Amino acid sequence: MSQPAGYSPSFKRPADIMRKRWRRSRSDAGVPSSPSGPESAGSPGRSGSSPACVRPFSPGPLFSRGGTKRRNPFSSIENTYSPKKKIHILNEDAKPGDDREEDASTKRECRGVSSFSASLTEAERHEHREVSSRKCLTVSEDDSLFEEEDEDVKSPLLKSPQAIAPASIAPPVCTEYPADWSLKTRLLFTSPLPLSWAEQPKAQEEALGLSQHCRAQFTTLPHSLQDPRSCSELRCAFQQCLVYWQHPSLPWISLFPRINAERRFTGKSTPWAQNASLQQSLMSEWSVSLSSLYSLLKARQCPYFYLCSYQFTVLFRAAGLGESSTITALISPTTRGLREAMKAEGIEFSLPLVEERRKSKDQQNLDGQDGKSEGCSEPTEGAACQEEDEGGEDGYNDDEDSSFSWLKEMGIEDKIKKPDSISIQLRKESRTVSLDHKPESVVCVEGPHTFTLINFLINCKSVVAAAGSQAGLPPTLLAPIAFRGATMHTLKARSVNVKSQVGSTFQNISSLEITGPILPSSLHTITTLLRPAQKGNYSATLYTHAPTAVMNISTTKQHSANCPVDVSGCGLHPASLQQLQQPSSLGKTALTHISLNNYSYTWKN
Known about the structure:
Layout: H1 14-29, H2 38-41, H3 77-80, H4 98-102, H5 104-109, H6 122-134, E1 137-139, E2 146-148, H7 161-164, E3 184-191, H8 203-215, H9 232-241, E4 243-247, H10 262-265, H11 276-298, E5 304-308, E6 313-317, E7 328-332, H12 336-344, H13 352-368, H14 382-393, H15 398-402, H16 405-410, H17 421-433, E8 443-446, H18 449-459, E9 476-479, E10 487-490, E11 492-502, E12 505-518, H19 520-533, E13 537-544, H20 574-581, E14 593-597, E15 600-604
Antiparallel strand pairs: 1-2, 3-12, 3-13, 4-9, 4-10, 5-6, 5-9, 6-7, 7-8, 11-12, 13-14, 14-15
């Protein structure tokens, strides 16, 4: 065969290079080589691997075979690999010599040598070259991923810091959100999976759910449900967690919320408004129900209950909840008249937020100056202590009220008008009254004084409105378990499918709306059921009854860790009970959003 003009003997055609590489790989694997040709190109080119869709050396159709696509042998390192992968490729060519011609075809593909190998000795470099010739890197279809063929050879020179270090650190999984003691008026759940299973239960499922609630029986669900709509246990458990108990119960009037709810009662029939005997009968039944609730609370058969009047809300918690070893009661908001009436009845209470603010202020004074700040060191009655503190700040106290001799010594007694006792008293009272109807006015009662508070609420006339649309109507009692005179109610659930715009496309999103007085235990059991039903992915928007948001503050001085209290028989789900036993970390705020992503909670307050 005649050689064309300008032909160089050292020039190797691409077909010869590929044939030589294929024969070397076959000899390393111990497979006898076969004659070259189109048929042999389809045989496995590497040990145990079979390239797919290999194109012949001349343009033509692809050969359909299993495996990965062979990269273009004519492409260079610069335009084949991504910029990230170029870091791991040796950019300088090998030195000329006897080994250059022998390993030229191999080095074009096997250039996974680290950049710092140039500093090695000649013997180490020769040994490393042998290792790299056996450990070649192949490129996948997208020319971005490297795969090692020889996994037995693990040289640290071929390992980049990115390969040695972990690819990513998994975020911590939060399986629970903080306890929230505020009352919710509305919940809105959204999820990419359907939520239609939560409405329109069958008669048998609803009956079984109510029965399980009354008997305090709970169903254990699997970690994930494939078809929630066909799971009868899930639907029964959902009906069970919607139940709450209320007194009094008037079907034509919504008795929650009671604060700033005059419009709800306008135009409604109120036959007790002008009937004194009917008002007396309502108050008598209400007193019996309140006494029954406190007895259940004291016996740890009721975990908590709420008293909602037209001007304040009271939360009673059993011993063992909120990390407290005694019964506690939180009242919010309060007024100066209510606090004075409680003090007159001998009820000891504290203003937790006022005391916390005063302690932080005293600490700042101690840090800023060496002197001590005047005030109450260990107050038991927050209102009285606050009056003394606030009075002392403006320079008006009993000592200065009784003597102004320093004016006489300066000779300006007649030129300056002395404040009279009435002005001093009004100034003190104005600071105390400024707390009224604010979150800072929350009152905490602990221990045996809660029983005195019950008697005070039964006999206090200010718990019932004397005029207006709520005149003569007793406060609303809400509890998660049955009590004397209570009526069983269920929260209203409604499921709707909507389309939400995400970027330039619309996605189908299922929503579930729950309305009514939503208790803390009901919120937790609902979110616990949605966890397996929605496969660990949903979000919720929470609407809080504003006066109860401050009830998440930490008020206890005695902790149940030192004296554990058994409250397992209170009728709550074990998971909900465990959450409510922990101290709340929300302060005077409440949860507004809850999101569950891949079984991990995040929240906002």
